TrEMBL record:
InterPro entries: DUF8055. This is DUF8055 domain-containing protein. Residues 8-20 have a biased composition (Basic and acidic residues). It comes from the Archaea. It holds the Pfam family DUF8055. Residues 20-135 form the DUF8055 domain. Residues 1-20 are annotated as: Disordered. It comes from Halogeometricum borinquense (strain ATCC 700274 / DSM 11551 / JCM 10706 / KCTC 4070 / PR3).
Amino acid sequence: MTDDAAGESERSDEDSRHSAYYEQIRSLAADARAERRRFEAPSDATAEERALSYVRGGVAPVTGIYVEGHTGGEHTRFSQTELDLLHRALNDWLSLYARCYGVAVDPDATVRTAAEILLQTHDARAVARLLTDAPPRR
């Protein structure tokens, strides 16, 4: 077996062994993708509330899963599929958050960076603000 074939086999094996968080991660990623497809800009009166709902319903849970998996009782080894889904979900939720403020961004933040910000600030909204620069400063 070649090194490439061995590497492919190892990745396939890793992806087939998802953590206990898999269904939750998959659900958050699917919800974020669906929300992006149906997004309609909120009115100025509801923008803040909608942005906060994306923090509470998306950014916080995605980041929280990662933090809990790495700081909980046992260290969770996320599969590559789970890490990819967490990455995509985080960035989808961040994009939705920013769009509420009229900011079009396509973030590429890592979940690890988001987790580090969360651990420093204890504020999921600060995570969204720092990673999107939204709302714009006036």
